[in-house]
Design brief:
This protein has a single domain, classed as Peptide deformylase (Peptide Deformylase, Alpha-Beta Complex). Helices cover 23% and strands 24% of the residues. It has four helices and nine strands.
């Protein structure tokens, strides 16, 4: 899966308004969508991520990419483009520590269904329905949350959330660094961009 003209774009961070909006569905795939997908993969790989949703790079549309093949038990997993995902059913549940490129340096346990049945469209806008479990189900749910304006920290137990509040405040105030480019919400400081 190769996309032309890919470039690394900055990732929006916690408190950016685009991360709390419900993203709009795509009506199809055109050359600008293909370019966006390429940029998303490039940016995700550059940040050593395993998933990235379009709102994380400032596009409030229902599109995400993921690639978990860097993980030991998932070496054969293929990169995925997921458009307009809809979870049809869930099974089981498990807690696991999660992190997020939009919340650099913060980790926390999140309880999620262990398997999901998902309807979605791929990069050719062809519809699929499939069941996913394990890490694939978790990453899909984490990224779908981004499309619904929810971050993993919003799903954390209140007591655990209080433990990371200082870090979240620092990120919201822009006092954060990462090994990848971060988009700063310049509107908060009155700058035009």
């Amino acid at each position: 899966m190769m996309f032309k003209k890919s470039m690394i774009v900055p990732i929006n961070i916690f408190s950016d308004p685009v991360l709390s909006m419900k993203a709009k569905p795509l009506k199809g795939v055109d050359s600008s969508t293909e370019e966006l997908i390429g940029n998303m993969f490039e940016s995700m790989y550059n940040a050593s991520g395993i998933g990235l949703a379009a709102p994380q790079i400032g596009s409030s549309i229902r599109l995400l990419v993921l690639d978990i093949s860097c993980m030991d038990n998932y070496r054969d997993a293929k990169p995925m483009v997921v458009i307009n995902p809809r979870i049809l059913a869930v099974k089981g549940q498990n807690a696991m520590e999660e992190g997020c490129l939009s919340v650099p340096g913060v980790m926390g346990d999140v309880l999620r269904p262990s398997a999901i049945n998902l309807r979605y469209r791929d990069e050719h806008f062809e519809e699929h329905t499939a069941e996913f479990s394990g890490m694939l189900a978790r990453v899909l749910q984490h990224e779908i949350d981004h499309l619904d304006g929810t971050l993993f920290v919003d799903r954390m137990d209140k007591r655990d959330r209080r433990k990371i509040q200082k870090e979240l405040t620092e990120i919201a105030e822009g006092r954060v660094t990462a090994e990848y480019p971060l988009a700063r919400d310049l509107s908060a400081v009155g700058a035009k961009g």
